[in-house]
Amino acid sequence: MAKTSTICPFCGCGCNFYLVTEQNKVVGVEPSPGNPVNKGMLCAKGWNSYDFINSPLRLTTPLVRKNGKLTESTWDEALDFTVRRLREIQSDSGSRSLGFLASAKVSNEENYLFMKMARAVFKTNNIDHCARL
């Protein structure tokens, strides 16, 4: 088994743990005893933070609705569609009609960039994050 040091993705505390892998598949986590934040302990979210990685329900390619059906697409197609629809909504109903929900399953830096995109590009302060609760 191999161990890879990483930071828990569920809040801004900065707890460290090791992702335990066997045959290139994540099979568990081990807390980092030397980390001054979590001192070898993890909360329930940290202990279960790897469950979604190997889920057969996890999306691995983007989906775009065409003729009422979700169909696989390229990343470029999915992003172009998303930008086009957000711009249409912004144009038709104003920036206050847009809302953005950030994710606990990405890094704090990625969430920061997401917030900057919502505020600077789409001119809305309607942004929330599940870890806030």
Examine the secondary-structure arrangement and name the CATH architecture of the largest domain.
Answer: Single Sheet
> What is the number of E strands?
7
Largest sheet: 3 strands, antiparallel
Tally of separate helices: 3
Beta-strand content estimate: 25-35%
Separation, N- and C-terminal Cα atoms: 35 Å
Q: Taking all residues together, what is the mean pLDDT?
A: 91
- Any idea of the CATH class of the largest domain? Mainly Beta
H and E string: EEEHEEHEHE
- Radius of gyration from the CA trace? 18 Å
Question: Helix content range of the residues, please?
Answer: 25-40%
* Domain unit count: 3
Assembly type of the shown chains? single chain
Note poorly predicted spans: none
Strand order of the largest sheet: 1-2-3
Describe this structure in words.
By secondary structure, the protein is an alpha+beta fold. The chain has 3 domains: 2-47, Single Sheet (N-terminal domain of TfIIb), CATH 2.20.25.90; 59-93, no CATH class; 97-133, no CATH class. 28% of the residues lie in helices and 26% in strands. It contains 3 helices and 7 strands; from the N terminus they run βββαββαβαβ. It has helices at 44-47, 75-93, 108-121; strands at residues 2-7, 16-22, 25-31, 63-66, 69-72, 100-102, 127-129. The strands form 3 sheets. A 3-stranded antiparallel beta sheet has the order 1-2-3, with no helix packed on it. It has a two-stranded antiparallel ribbon with strand order 4-5. Strands 6-7 form a two-stranded parallel sheet.
